[in-house]
Amino acid sequence: MTVVGTQGLTMQYPRVRALDELTLTIPEGITGVVGVNGAGKSTLIKVLLGLLAPTSGSAQVLGLDPQTHGAAVRERVGYMPEHDVLPADVSAAEFVMHMGMMSGLPKAAARERTSDVLRHVGLAEERHRPMGGYSTGMRQRAKLAQAIVHDPQLVFLDEPTNGLDPRARDEMLDLIGRIGHDFGISVAVTSHLLGELERTADHIVVLDAGQLLRASDTSALTLSTGTILVEVLGPTDANQQVGQALVDRGVTAWPSGDKIEVRVDDPKVLDTVRDVVVDLGFGLVRIQEVHHTLEEVFQRQGGPA
Question: Where is the ABC transporter domain (predicted)?
Fold first, then answer.
């Protein structure tokens, strides 16, 4: 099922064209909308929410036109803005409950949903503190909570990992994965970093200067490289011994960190790897297929880095 579709969507500002005849579809699941700053990602979200009127073209969100049914769209859709817009003197519990009621929830239901979503995003213990004292990561979690408090069918997350350290970024991506895969809410998440969406997004849409550069399932983009990583258990020179034994048997192999990378031109190579490790008396810990990263895909094709 398609949750978002646009046809010839154009947004012309006085000095820049933010969207340029953009035609795309976003299916159910988690979709990463990727592009450098200025690619048109935030403008697209605002048009889809009915907050901006496009210069030309059309859009559908959950089967509704956001220009004529903006309020109905916003009842069914959640939105986490890029910029920090949280009131400093209000607690997360008060703010998220208020946003739930603004989205149409009765007060009792909004209070119950607020408790649930703040627990899901990891703010249960801090929910009564004023948000002005929150860290960047906590503020991002509060913004995420208000976006899903009304149990939307679709949620737009605009650069949700901005300003986060690596650990907080990983935790945010895990939360996004849970929303899309466990809660059944379709997600459109924007980012200028291809790599961080690999493990989370089911689909990737790449924008460049307001135009569609590419759209595909993530799995179709990150195809196998035709190599495997082999991890063995043995003495300190175990990798060197296994690698040399493979080369002696005509297999292309080379060191890769604390593992051995092996080219698989024939399925029989896997049997050869197993036999070599066993013959040397080592333990075979893991054989892992190597896939292209999204950055590799687009660098190879001349897309965004």
Answer: 4-234
